[in-house]
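FAQ

Q: What does a record look like?
A: Structure on top, sequence underneath. For example:
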């Protein structure tokens, strides 16, 4: 599943992919609906919308109007605002899902073997205004339909290791295929060429067909 490591081969793959993607057009993409909600994901992590890099806030504004191609791939060195930025986005999109990539891949692997469970909000108590928690089990036949119904999926830190194992590759490829034209944001410390080498040309191709935001500058921490 890894890209072949022969001199010049990757450059040829990238060139062909860019030419094909430049010639293709996606007719429409789902806009994001911004609302107000609590910090459901990583509430201990500080984030401020006013401090977002201009490139990132501009991409989010375009996403609200349905003017960008999904997926949105955000890359840049540590500290440039990637994670805080996507958390700000999750805070204003109801029912958004935020995952660190390796956790998402592991959860999909667990779902394949019928052992994926997590606690979610359940039905609202009549008159009380609170929601009862419930345990939800995910299986292969229910996992991806659930992913497809989500208003927004955010996957943080793809490509943390030099190589992706088979289950990680499968999780990312299926995610990209299932969320075509739907709001999907992925972040990485690596640029797209490096991600293509960690995974393969098919992953590169799917990411390149979307919107790329490359952040630079000093650490914001």
């Amino acid at each position: 599943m890894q890209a072949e490591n022969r001199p010049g081969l990757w450059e040829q793959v990238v060139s062909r992919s860019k030419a094909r993607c430049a010639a293709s057009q996606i007719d429409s993409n789902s806009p994001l609906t911004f609302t107000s909600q609590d910090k459901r994901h990583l509430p201990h992590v500080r984030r401020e919308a006013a401090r977002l890099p201009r490139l990132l806030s501009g991409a989010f504004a375009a996403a609200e109007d349905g003017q960008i191609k999904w997926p949105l791939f955000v890359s840049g060195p540590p500290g440039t605002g990637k994670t805080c930025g996507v958390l700000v986005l999750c805070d204003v999109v109801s029912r958004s899902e935020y995952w660190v990539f390796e956790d998402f891949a592991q959860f999909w692997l667990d779902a394949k073997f019928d052992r994926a469970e997590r606690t979610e909000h359940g039905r609202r108590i009549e008159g009380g205004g609170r929601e009862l928690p419930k345990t939800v089990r995910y299986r292969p036949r229910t996992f991806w339909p659930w992913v497809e119904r989500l208003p927004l999926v955010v996957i943080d830190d793809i490509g943390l290791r030099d190589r992706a194992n088979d289950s990680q590759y499968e999780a990312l490829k299926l995610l990209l295929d299932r969320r075509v034209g739907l709001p999907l944001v992925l972040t990485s410390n690596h640029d797209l060429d490096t991600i293509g080498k960690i995974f393969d040309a098919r992953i590169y191709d799917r990411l390149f067909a979307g919107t790329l935001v490359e952040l630079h500058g000093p650490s914001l921490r």
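Q: Is there anything notable about this one?
A: Helices lie at 9-23, 54-64, 82-91, 101-112, 140-149, 166-178, 192-198, 201-208.
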